[in-house]
Amino acid sequence: MPTAKLTIVDDFHGDYEDDLLHSAGENSQVSGRLGGSPLMRDTIELLSHWVGNYDQCGRKELELLGRYLYTVAFGDDCPSSGGPTGATGEPSPLRRAFERAYTFYRQKGVGGCFRLQLVIGGEARQLGSFPWEFLFMPQSEGGFFLAGERSDFVLTRYVPNEDDSKIIEERSVPGDEGSDRMRILVVLSRPQAPGAADIEAGKLVDAIKKLRSSDTDVEELQSPTRQELRQRLEAYPAHIVHFIGHGKDNALTLKKSEWALAQERLDRMPTNSHGSAAQELDEADPADSRSVCSLFCHGLDSGPGLERTSVPRRLIFLHSCYGAAVRPSGNALRSLSSIARDLAGKEGISAVIAMQYAIASEDAERFAIRFYHWIGSGKRVDDAVSWARRELGEISSRGRQVWDDPCFGTPVIYVRRAGVFFPRRLPARSARESGWPQGHRPASYTGGGLSSAPRVLEDRRPGIGRPRDPGRSAERGIGYGAADAASSSGSASGYTPEDALLLGAEPDMGEED
User: Fold this and answer.
1) 441-442 and 509-510: which strand pairing?
2) Average pLDDT in the 319-342 region?
3) In terms of Cα–Cα distance, which of 326, 82, 19, 346 is closest to 190?
4) Domain definitions of the chain by residue range
5) What H or E segment, with its residue span, contains residue 314?
């Protein structure tokens, strides 16, 4: 499971490392200037606006946007003298390092998915608003979108942190009180407000409710006030909070309290003898980012099954659905994305998913159901998003060709804690029944569990044959974590093949029978 990390430090500088050829622990990471002329960056902003506001954008426009994003992120291929990379006739250091690592991964058959973690620094003011999910890697035979078009590549936005996530992963086993069922709280917030577009989410909510089973519980909360949301999370410590509603001015819209509404009704009572018509009541209560973070993190330290020694913590899903007549404004969507970034920086939040563009209710339903399917099967959050995103790219609800509909780039995932979000103990069953993506299964899977514990991954660089140190990779925040650490001492500790799935180890993937 090789992992690379590109850190966009600011609008002009970046750092790159991976656990194949450019390890930070061995001082072989790469730093360099980002690419893209001012004109190219302005064009990216224009194309992003087109994607978000015009349905006519197709593969041609999306690929152009993706190529420009790739040039900005990794530098120019052959920059001219005086270009942004300061080089002449050679690829930028960032581009050369990334493409070298990915080529090595493909040619050597390293196994597993190649994961690219994109870290956007706080000083990257212009680049922080770019739609990186449309990154397109040009190749001699055309190229591909990094966010799902190729099954062996996973793109996520990573949020570096120093919380206790590593301790949680190593000490946690499912089966603790309250953690045997995955709990989903659907918050549908649509208070009445002058000029507010209605949210068409009935089918989505119904589809999520159908996930109820012996191992998944779903509850719904309609248009809550701040106090009602807080009380529900205290009584029902959800693993996943799926918020569907409006954003406005860097705030999420909840419903005003009864006291506030009563005061507003008094203020709007007719004052003349003719009894003028009362204005439409505004029930909307915009909760700013700080308030949202406080509300959505409530119950993490006290709820059953969510203590510091238990997994999972909490995953937040933010989006707004629209129908055929009305779509959310750009301001509303930017508010959701901004709050998602703030939430992802909070301790106890494993990941946040938001929609950076308007998404049709049919596409939102397909994405959410596929995502919850993979999460409930014990898969990694980034894998679940990538596979659900791939379905949007390959099957368009508007009758378009594959990867011709921009909806695949609409979901954005901010990952704070990598690994399996909700581990499951998988019973003995066939590869097709086990929930692996179609076309893939563990190479050693025989229908009765894995035939052996995952092998210790070796460093395959030329001249280096030692086993990889999983602890050091985990400390760097990339690469291999607790599952590999367990596998390296499997026989001594009683580590079993089943435990590999619990800890998030990914066995080699082969072709399905």
Assistant:
1) antiparallel
2) 65
3) 326
4) 3-158, 165-264+279-415, 443-510
5) strand 314-319
DSSP track, 70-132: HHHHH--SSPPTTSTT--SSS--HHHHHHHHHHHHHHHHT--S-EEEEEEEEEE-TTGGGS-G
Per-residue pLDDT at 497: 38
Give the fold, CATH level 3, of 165-264+279-415: Rossmann fold (3.40.50)
Rounded distance between C-alpha atoms, residue 187 and residue 193, angstroms: 18
User: Do 59 and 51 contact (CB within 8 A), yes or no?
Assistant: no
Check if the beta carbon of residue 184 is closer than 8 Å to that of residue 270.
no
Could you tell me the CA-to-CA distances from 452 to 101, 431, 441 in Å, in that order?
29, 16, 15
- Other C-beta atoms within 10 Å of 47: how many? 20
- 141-187 pLDDT, tens per residue? 889 999 989 989 999 999 887 654 443 343 333 333 445 688 999 99
Amino acid at residue number 474: A
- What percent of the chain is modeled with pLDDT above 90? 31
Which of 486-513 are b and which e, b meaning 16 or more Cβ less than 10 Å from the residue's Cβ? bbbebeeeebebebbbbbbbbbebeeee
446 CB-near residues (< 8 Å, 6+ apart): none
Type of residue found at 354: A
Q: Which two tokens stand for residue 144?
A: 């591909």
Q: What's phi and psi for 84, nearest 5 deg?
A: -65, -25
The tens digit of pLDDT for each residue in 252-305 reads 889 999 998 888 888 776 654 555 555 678 888 999 989 999 999 887 765 454
Residue 100 tokens, joined: 């070298």
Q: What is the largest CA-CA distance in the chain?
A: 93
pLDDT in tens, 193-233: 777 667 777 888 888 998 898 888 999 999 999 999 999 99
**In the chain, count of helices (H) and strands (E)?**
15, 19
Q: Which of 481, 125, 188, 200 is nearest to 365 (CA)?
A: 200
Q: Report how far residue 186's alpha carbon sits from residue 225's, in angstroms, rounded to the nearest whole number.
A: 14
The tokens for 265 are 């009704």
